Amino acid sequence: MEHQTIVEALLLGLLEGLTEFLPVSSTGHILLAGHFLGFESTGKAFEVLIQLGAILAILSVYSAKLMRIALDLPSDPRARRFVLGILVAFLPAAVIGALAHDFIKTVLFETPKLICIMLILGGFVLLAVDRMKLKPLYHDVMDYPLSLCLKIGLFQCLAMIPGTSRSGATIVGALLMGTDKRSAAEFSFFLAMPTMAGAFTYDLLKNRDILSAADLPVIATGFVAAFIAAVIVVRFLLGYVSRHGFAIFAWWRLVVGVLGLTALYTVG
């Protein structure tokens, strides 16, 4: 494996970890960066498989809370409702993702102009929602009713279009459905675990025949970089959005989307 490819994998892994839990679309950023770097992964598997690093980041940061929920499951109806709520929210993306997998990977992933447009549109949506004077009804993810979880899960399906942002779609959906900013971001964290684990497993099975040992160093490099960067982001994000909201991420999307379109039309 060429040294340049390992360096590119490192950069893309850091980009994945830094953006996965921000409402800016990690997939959109990676695909655009890969396009301009000339980075080509086997079956576009790299972009999905390195998300395992981000999943492990969530598990490490929330290990104590997850363990407490697991221990409380037999005796605490609140813990059982929370786990069921995450599964209910995950279900729509699991079904649609499996049915539309090939179209997403072969068409949507290969359309950088669409990614830029979705970054821009999502930026305007996030900016508008962040400025709304919404009165939250829910402040703790443990208290989300199942109906709310399902609605958030339906919003997550919008992220099948790269550039939309999985976390952005779930956070916007949660805010519009009556949650506060901190719990909306935290629910997005927890929902990421089954969603990304499912995407990882499904993509690995779909690409197991075309991946080779030569792909492992690149994927491993991206995985480790994504894990380290994601741990940093998860630790700071909840406190930041509680104080400042999501406007900075909306403006970031707009800048990246406009610069991406400009580059595409000028250098290709």
Characterize the structure shown.
Its main location: membrane. InterPro entries: UppP (IPR003824). Catalyzes the dephosphorylation of undecaprenyl diphosphate (UPP). Confers resistance to bacitracin. This is Undecaprenyl-diphosphatase. It comes from Pseudaminobacter soli. This protein has 268 residues and is mainly alpha-helical. It has one domain. 75% of the residues lie in helices and 0% in strands. The protein contains 13 helices and no strands. It has helices at residues 3-19, 26-37, 46-49, 51-61, 63-72, 77-99, 101-106, 112-131, 146-156, 166-176, 181-207, 216-244, 247-266. Helix 2 (26-37) packs antiparallel against helix 8, helix 6 packs across helix 11 and helix 9 packs antiparallel against helix 10. The two termini are 26 Å apart. The mean pLDDT is 89.
